[in-house]
Amino acid sequence: MSSGIEFPKELETQFEKLKMGKAHRYLSIIISSKSVEGSNKTTEVFEVEKMPAKNCPNEDPEGCLQELMELLQDNQCRFVVFLMSAPNIAGILKENIFFVQYVPDCASIKKKMLYTASADVLKQRFEGVTIIQLNDLSDCKSELFLSKIRM
């Protein structure tokens, strides 16, 4: 299902930087409305809300997840694409890029539908990510993420 939401080139560029491990550890993405030039209409667009520098102090998996939990505290729908490193079963450090679709149960029906329909657009554009769906902060457990890395 196509949501008709604009996918800006900047978002693709920032994802590539994250993927290459160059600039950011995560991207927080929201859907916002912007005015269409020359008319009274608005269109919805994916917007990068936050993109902290890669050299953030929380490089360990638990610190990464704690930062993710803090980001989701406001119970607003959003997508988060983030890089997480942890040892796999063989003990070798492995990086994984997660695509977290956070649609809390307390969100309005309209927001839930918008973010659910729009997720496919991002999933198709962000190749090579591990998809995680969260509906409540209690779902955000380190073992959920670490088990995907250890596979």
From TrEMBL:
<dbReference type="GO" id="GO:0030042">
    <property type="term" value="P:actin filament depolymerization"/>
</dbReference>
<dbReference type="InterPro" id="IPR029006">
    <property type="entry name" value="ADF-H/Gelsolin-like_dom_sf"/>
</dbReference>
<dbReference type="InterPro" id="IPR002108">
    <property type="entry name" value="ADF-H"/>
</dbReference>
<comment type="similarity">
    <text>Belongs to the actin-binding proteins ADF family.</text>
</comment>
<feature type="domain" description="ADF-H">
    <location>
        <begin position="2"/>
        <end position="150"/>
    </location>
</feature>
<keyword id="KW-0009">Actin-binding</keyword>
<dbReference type="Pfam" id="PF00241">
    <property type="entry name" value="Cofilin_ADF"/>
</dbReference>
<dbReference type="InterPro" id="IPR017904">
    <property type="entry name" value="ADF/Cofilin"/>
</dbReference>
<dbReference type="GO" id="GO:0015629">
    <property type="term" value="C:actin cytoskeleton"/>
</dbReference>
<protein>
    <recommendedName>
        <fullName>ADF-H domain-containing protein</fullName>
    </recommendedName>
</protein>
<dbReference type="GO" id="GO:0003779">
    <property type="term" value="F:actin binding"/>
</dbReference>
